[in-house]
Each structure stands twice: as C-alpha cells, then as structure tokens.
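Quick one, T. Sequence first:
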Amino acid sequence: MGEPDPLVLLSKQDLKLGRLIKSIGNYSIQIHDNLFESLLKSIVYQQLASSAANAIYSRFLLYYGETLPSPHQIISTPDAVLRFTIGLSFKKIEYIKNLAAKIVSGELNIHYLPCLQDEEIITELVKVKGIGRWTAEMFLIFCLKREDVLPLGDLGVKKAIQKLYNLSELPTDEFMLEASSKWKPYRSIATWYLWKSISKFDSIG
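Structure tokens:
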C-alpha cells in the first residue's frame, strides 16, 4: 500500500481542520531548492516589507551580475558596498558574512543538512548569527520539504489555532503540541492551512 493522502488523514484526525481544508482546497507549498540562497534570503528579508526586501535583494543580485554570489564573493565584498549601494543594514551585513564564513570554513556544511533529522538541522542553523529557530523551521518547510514541522513561535499559527478552536486567548505551546499531535506526520501541511486561514477567512466553525 502507498502512503496515505495527507489531506484525507488530516481531515479524518481533526474535523475542525478538515472543514478548514475543505474551505481552502488543495495545498501548494512553494519549494526553494537552493540551500545557500534560501538561508541568504531568509536573513535579507527579515523584518522588512516584501516590497522593500525584494528591492534590496534585486540590487544585491545586480551587483554580482544578476547571479547568486558565492560565499567567498560575499566575504570579499566591502561592507560599504553592501550598506550604501545595496541597502543592507550593518547588522544584516554581519549576518550574511557570518553565514558565508561558516560555509567557507566548513563549520556549516549546508549540503549535508538534508541528511540530518529536523532538530539536528535546527541546532546547526541557529549557530549562524541572524538565524533563529523560526527561520530554521521555515528552511525545513520551504527548502527541505520536511512535512512534519510545527513552528510554535509563529504568531500567525498561534492566531489561527486560537480561531480554529475558539479559544479566548492565544494558545500555549502545550496546547499547540497537544492539538497538533493529531496532525502528525503532516504538521507542515496543517501549518500551511493555518496560515491560509488567517489571510483568507474570517472564521471557521
């Protein structure tokens, strides 16, 4: 027998989530398969509106001839260029150079990451300045296609769970873990629906 259909399993295990899935339709998780660029962009885009982040990243690529620079190229680029030509903050310059330096030194072997378990990957990534647990979890979902990730610290997920279960306040981590136990091994897919529910629907019965 093949693998069970994720949506059938999620809908069967959690009727409230099942109604949400039916309302939204099929899921589509867009995967970014370049490991280095995924981490690089996650740092560049932090705490910026998408339009501003897109503009900065476009200038970033333009500076390197419309191609993704290597870690060596990033390290050798003067901070003044990254700050005043491209528009990165000095803090983000520190972060992307720290990422590049760890890759060059071999301290972070990004091509080995897919061989590791989820928590092992998070442990490795949070050693990089500017990459916290949430960013590492997004990397797991949107780059490595890991299907069973629940970002406990994501405010959108918290709000969606609050609405889904008609809670008077945001759920605790304990509640989220208990509720999401029914979604295993597809908590990433459930998370996608929770995000969509916040952006598209006012209420779910």
